[in-house]
């Protein structure tokens, strides 16, 4: 038992290391616009002379490569000089920098889209990022970058009060990188009231007398709210027997539980009436 759990831990750790090694955002990188100049500094270098390598090939000064002390300047950068630059001192690697071509100016439609769902009363916003040709993305709406989940979603938390008018939009910043050493950054801002939509309400009311379920479906159309609220369903049953009318109301509130408000004897002949949100 002990051995089994130990090896499981080992496998998990290896996976984590491999995943982070593949993530190019973990590298020290710099994104440079096409035809701009960039100076790389060999940080942590001692006063010994340094040499540079580009993608493991020794680098010599050239028309577009200037070397000055511990610095190296790439002039009028283009795609052919993007990749990993390393600097070496006495056969030891001292520093490395991943140079990317900054394509932010060429990204037109926002690669970020976000949604939020009301019915299950979570306050989580889920965002996705995609852009043709790009494989790696990260996103933030605060100081810390978020990594995508295994389904490629970024889950943002927010502190917006659902019962008040939203005064300021939520702003997210996203970055993308490609295997071709392209990079972009972009920002996207939105109000929750504009992205919120009803999810599946999953309201099932058990009808006591024969155990069948009444299932509600989410509305087909949704009029954008000007503010948003955690939604509550109310379903009203009206029973008529021999001229006697009995009512039972069910509500489905944000606690995530349904509770009958009042449970009177339900009669066999039943007529249901749904209140609140219309179901088809
Ligand atoms: C890049 O450096 C060259 C040579 O020093 C200079 O002539 C040019 O103006 C610089 N370009 C930019 C965009 O700074
Ligand atoms: C190297 O670059 C840094 C910052 O870019 C600059 O402060 C320093 O003077 C440069 N050194 C040389 C020898 O050009
Ligand atoms: C609420 O909806 C989100 C997004 O669809 C989902 O991931 C989450 O599991 C749901 N939570 C509950 C309690 O149903
Ligand atoms: C994108 O990066 C540039 C340079 O690093 C920065 O000046 C700019 O503010 C960034 N844009 C966004 C939306 O973060
Ligand atoms: C049980 O419920 C189903 C669905 O509402 C209904 O079609 C059926 O007639 C009910 N049966 C009895 C015995 O009430
Ligand atoms: C059910 O709701 C309706 C409308 O809100 C209300 O008039 C009625 O008194 C409620 N019945 C019960 C039993 O709570």
From TrEMBL:
Range of residues in the leader sequence: 1-21
SUPFAM superfamilies assigned to the protein according to its UniProt record, in alphabetical order: Fibronectin type III, Immunoglobulin
Top-rank taxon, per record: Eukaryota
Keyword annotations: Disulfide bond, Glycoprotein, Immunoglobulin domain, Signal
Stated name of the protein: Interleukin-12 subunit beta-like isoform X2
Keyword flag Disulfide bond: yes
Transmembrane region(s): none
Compositional bias (Basic residues): 255-280
Region (Disordered): 253-280
């Amino acid at each position: 038992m002990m051995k089994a759990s130990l090896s499981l831990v080992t496998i998990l750790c290896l996976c984590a290391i491999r995943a982070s090694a593949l993530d190019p955002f973990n590298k020290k990188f710099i994104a440079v616009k096409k035809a701009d100049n960039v100076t790389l500094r060999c940080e942590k270098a001692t006063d010994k002379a340094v040499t540079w390598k580009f993608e493991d090939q020794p680098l010599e000064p050239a028309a577009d490569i200037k070397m000055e002390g511990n610095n190296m300047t790439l002039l009028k950068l283009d795609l052919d000089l993007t990749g990993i630059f390393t600097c070496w001192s006495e056969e030891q690697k001292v520093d490395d920098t991943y140079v990317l071509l900054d394509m932010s100016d060429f990204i037109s439609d926002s690669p970020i889209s976000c949604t939020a769902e009301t019915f299950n009363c979570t306050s989580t916003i889920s965002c996705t990022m995609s852009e043709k040709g790009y494989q790696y993305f990260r996103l933030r709406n605060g100081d810390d970058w978020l990594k995508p989940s295994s389904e490629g979603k970024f889950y943002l938390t927010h502190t917006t009060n659902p019962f008040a008018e939203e005064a300021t939009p939520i702003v997210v910043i996203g970055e993308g990188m490609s295997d071709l050493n392209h990079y972009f950054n972009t920002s996207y801002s939105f109000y929750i009231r504009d992205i919120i939509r009803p999810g599946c309400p999953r309201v099932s009311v058990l009808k006591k007398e024969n155990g069948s379920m009444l299932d509600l479906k989410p509305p087909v159309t949704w009029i954008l709210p000007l503010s948003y609220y955690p939604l509550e369903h109310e379903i009203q049953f009206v029973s008529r027997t021999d001229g006697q009318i009995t009512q039972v109301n069910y509500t489905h509130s944000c606690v995530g539980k349904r509770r009958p408000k009042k449970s009177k004897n339900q009669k066999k002949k039943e007529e249901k009436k749904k209140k609140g949100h219309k179901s088809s």
